[in-house]
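seq as requested:
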Amino acid sequence: DITMVPEDGPQARIIVAADVNNVLLGDEGAVFTYGKQKGLKDEDAPFMEDAVHNLAEVIKSDFNRDVTTIKGGGAAGGIGAGLYGVLGAELRDGTELFFRLAKFIEKVKGSEAIITGEGSFDSLTGYGKVVQRVLAAGREEGIIVIVLAGKITESAEKQFSDARSFGISITPPGMDFKKAKECVGELLQKGAVEAMQELVRLARR
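struct tokens:
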């Protein structure tokens, strides 16, 4: 309820760590980029886009903040935009913030390989998600990056621009999502073994 927000704003500094850089509206906004992934039907997307646009207009009218252009505003269904617009939150690149707090680059320097994971390694990964940034760090530091994912789409293969880095889809062909969730531990173990075997092959080249 936005009427509960104090007129002089919240009495605390709010920092939002957004894992993607999408804006709120448009083809690369919250609805058209992530709606289908969250269960939104294609025919309902235009209605939802109009609803989000209306919300943005209300926020602009009541709080004098334009939430339509801020990077990260489309994260988590538009929560990033809402927190910025209503509470004056500061949106940060979540991956960059995590890397800094965890001292990620310092810790991986000198490593031979990094193993990371993603539920679905697809075109959405390219919007600034952690895996994409780990791959970039691997290229910069000359480290092999191995991605273990539930699935890897053809459109995402181009993200392995460094020939030494690679991805492994741990879900066998034909296995449905429900079954994959039930035996994810076993699938991860098999994927890790496959990754180590590939590392050995790379070392012998």
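The radius of gyration is 20 Å.
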